[in-house]
Hints:
mainly alpha; Rna Polymerase Sigma Factor, Chain: A; 2 domains
Amino acid sequence: MSNRGELYSTLLIKNRHRIYGFIYSMVHDHHASEDLFQDVSTILWEKFDRYVEGSDFAVWAMSIARFCILNWRRKQSRLALPLDDDVLIKLADESVKVSCEFDDLRGYLRDCCTIIPSQIMKVLHARYNRDEKVSSIAKRKNKSVRSIYLTLQKAHNMLLDCVERKMGRSLQ
């Protein structure tokens, strides 16, 4: 596979959930969304020579998906579709904007996790990555449940403050 083909595959795999989520948010039908995702994937590959490396692949893909969705809606005209195309386009544009903002927030949060002391990060990891119950964490660490809740609260506050600072800087 060429480097360009590998790049396409990597970007598509990395952004699959974002693109599929965008499609589903516009059609609200899992089967149609899966079919549309396959169509979009094919078109993305056909047009991949137009993709500017380093730009946001998901945003580019969602702009192509938007046209596929509009075509799909036209073919479905015999069905009662609750939204007209203008409303759908506005929703699609807003969805792309929110998706980009979410990616920014996720990046800020990832950066902010580096300032959290390792012992607190271990508690966060146990609670949220492994979905461990607070009582289980407390027992394993030989601490009170209240102590673990206070640790989580401290971590949440530190992360919130850090993310808000980073957001403030990005707005300036």
